[in-house]
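S.,

As promised, the D-fructuronic acid run. Input:
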Amino acid sequence: SQPLHRDQIEAVVSAAVQKQPVVDMHTHLYSPAFGTPVPNAAGPVDPTGLLLWGLDELVTYHYLIAEVFRVVPATVLPYDTFFKMSKVEQADHIWKHLFVERSPISEACRGVLTTLHKLGLDVSDRKLDSARKWFKEQKPGDYIDKVMELANVESITMTNPVFDDGERERWLRGIKPDPRFQAVLRIDPLLLDWPAAAKKMASWGYGVSEEVGGRTIEEARRFLRDWIDKQNAIYLALSLPPSWRYPADPADAAARAGQAILEQVILPVCAERGLAFAMMIGSRRAANPALRDAGDMVGTSDVDSVTALAARFPGNRFFVTMLARENQHALAVAARKFGNLMVFGCWWFVNNPSLITEITKMRVELLGTSFIPQHSDARVLDQLLYKWDHSRKLIAGVLAEKYRDAVDAGWKLTTADIERDVALYLKGNFRNFL
Ligand code: FIX
Ligand code: ZN
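Predicted complex:
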């Protein structure tokens, strides 16, 4: 094909990024088999269901709960009072204060607007009634098809916390997710609170004790193998606080136990099964516990711990993302040193346009095409529509600039070249690393 003129690049990149189906490597979404608590045309509603979707879930996203407590503080509406309100009442409260009484220009507010707009819903009267009615008429099964098609997402990776009772019971009952949804075995307590994890595992019939050694190691490995098989998990994952260090502080017994589990249980099983291990580092949980999911804080983490782990375990593969803006540069540099380290996504508090652009640009400059620019982290199905719309535009903007620089330096670039690279970014790099 013909080399592109520099003036054509922006349009070609933008079309390629729009057209390329995404494999979303980290979400908190579920296939309908996991049940939905959202009233809908297919009824019956399962209050413990895990698939969140629809207007009231969108508007009560925990990002927006944090924002509404800034303008209606807990001294006026106590946290408990808010959380005792129905979903509809919570959504009305957030809508009134963040969308009607002031303009919805934060990224999370804008996300709701983009989502409704993409669905063809008009809220310019600033009322939620007609949109709410439209959502009630949807059937989750059909609605998933619609959202995935509109968002151009081909495959959704779930997060499946095995220490979560509601989740565990569903797997034990033999749930079979829709093949577009793939499982990730999420194991935070195993590394972060071994005594509590061990107690639960022992009650489930695994011969483990608080002391990490001998039989405990074998039985903990058996636990992981069993759950990898049950979920058909495509990788293992957890999130870590900013204080996480590898190697652990020898004076910290809990951290030492975590290190032993990591070195002797998690990584050997990952290696034996050929599975990657994902670490999301930098969230300090429950800085304000009354805010629940909205109460977590960001902290600067230790990139040297990641490089130490990548060096010590060359036979393992690590997906790593970090929450603090301050860590992004060193993390990208670390990935230049270790081929078994795959940098991914702009996670949570760095998933904002200004930071996505900055981080993506820097990663292209340091890593070329060899990283995964984004995951959605969607908790509500419909959020795929805005998370990927916003990210696609920002990624395309960065890539267009970088391709123009190459063309200015005399490189002959074709549409096929661009499409090949974009397929790596949105799908191939993740799949190949698996
Ligand atoms: O640990 C995680 O997977 C985090 O992404 C979530 O727990 C967090 O609450 C979130 O939704 C961030 O986007
Ligand atoms: Zn997440």
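The mean pLDDT is 97. The longest helix spans residues 383-408.

- D.
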